[in-house]
Structures are given as structure tokens and as C-alpha cells.
């Protein structure tokens, strides 16, 4: 009898331990260069979401370089869709800190401090709170690689050169002022921009073929040619909901790439609702008409687009 009780106790203990491990288990995701879920054979980064299978208000996640070195640590309010909230830290592959900053609703907020790869201080940037769209912070202090402080208390002559690009111009009250010039070494292009009180007045990029591209917005997100409302109308009219899923409600979170020509490629469901509806959403993206491509300083570029689709029960 004692032996039976002992065995029963061990079984219950093992079951409890297994349940706890299942609840607190982490989730590993492979990501490509565009931060889209990939395969173990074709990835550039990995993401570890701690205690993914537990029911929590926030989840710590960590991004790693392919070498296994830590790249980024942050907290998200959604375990599937990274909605960053609170303090985040970015690292170079050599282990040195790249920057630290606070996030509110997935947007940088407050002071960001950054360093060069060798550990020397680089900048102090202040991001405004509660701003919509892409917001560039004010440069409060900036040091060049030679440790010289070239921007102090929001004023100075900014100049920075990296492996891929360079740019230079005046900083006044933390914002660009007057004429700025720079180059993109990868695209073999150069630009000239005019600013007034931090606002971009005009810009011209000269590409590798010596063609000039004028622009009034530095970074332009990709968009449907007839507007996002028209695109959602296309999705709503074309979405096929199986009879057995007519009571299903929820949201599909997906991503896709809008390439330089406006084609929608590589659709991926990050979080779905099942019943074949996710696969239908992927097919609709593949069959969609071309968009206006995203642009970086007037030149079309590949851009990642995140699309939520709401499914309503009938």
C-alpha cells in the first residue's frame, strides 16, 4: 500500500512539474533581415520570448545575432505582436551597449543615450511624448568618434560618418537648420536638404545614375494607390469565411514586404484565427494590386508593412 502511495505521489509531483514547465516555457522565433519570421536554415536573428505560454500582462523578449550574442532586450504587452513598453537596451555584437531608451506605445519617449561600438559616448537625444507617425528626436549632445563634443545643449555643427552613410549640418535648439548634405554609400547616392526650425523644406537625392529625386518627406511609408480604406474594402469583400467559422471573431496580424516597384510579397501571418482564414488572407495579399512603394529620401525602397485584419462573427 505504501509503495502504491509512493508511486502515486511521484506521478502527481511529475505531472505538476511538467505543467509548471509547460506554462513557463519560452518561445524561440527565427527572423530574417527584415525581421520577418523565417526558418532555421535561412535566418539572421533569433527572438526569445520568455514565459510565452503563461498568461501575463507583459513579456520580456530578447533578440540575438546569429552568432548567439545578445542584440536587444525589451518588454512587450503582446507576446505575438511586439508592442514595446518601458525601458529597452540595444547591444553591438561585441557586447557593448548601443543605446538605451524608454518606449511608450512602441514609440521612443524621453532621453535616449547611445554609444559607439568601442564603448565611447556618442549622443543624448530627446524624443517627444505622444507624437503620431515617425518622429525624430532632438539632438541634445553629440560626440564624434574622436571624443570631441560637437553638439552641446542642442547647438553645434553635426557631422557623422559610418560604414554605410554620412551626413553633416547645423543643429540649432536640438533640430537641423539650414543646408544639410550627405551620402548613402550602399546606394551610391547623395542628398542636399534644406531645414527651417527643424522642419524639412525640401530635399534632392542624386542617385547612382545621376538622376535627381525631389522630396518633401524624408521617410515615406508604402501605401495603397487608392487609400487604405479602399484596400480594406478589397479585403472585406474578397475574404472567404468557411461556414464552420461563421462564429469566429478575432484579429489576424500579418506582415508583408512592399518592394521597390510596389509589389506585395512575402506575406506572413504572425497571429491568426485558424479555420483556413489565415491562408485566405495570405492569398489576398498575393493577388492584391500594386501599392505606392515606400521611399527613403525620394528613392523607392523595400519596406515591411504590418496589417491587422479584424474578423467579425456573423
UniProtKB/TrEMBL annotation:
A GO term, aspect molecular function: energy transducer activity
Keyword set includes Cell division: no
Pfam families to which the protein is assigned, alphabetical: MORN_2, TonB_C
Listed InterPro entries: MORN_2 (IPR011652), TonB-dependent_transducer (IPR051045), TonB_C (IPR037682)
Signal peptide: 1-19
Alphabetized PANTHER family for the sequence: PROTEIN TONB (PTHR33446:SF2), PROTEIN TONB-RELATED (PTHR33446)
Name of the protein this chain belongs to: Energy transducer TonB
Species annotation: Flavobacterium crocinum
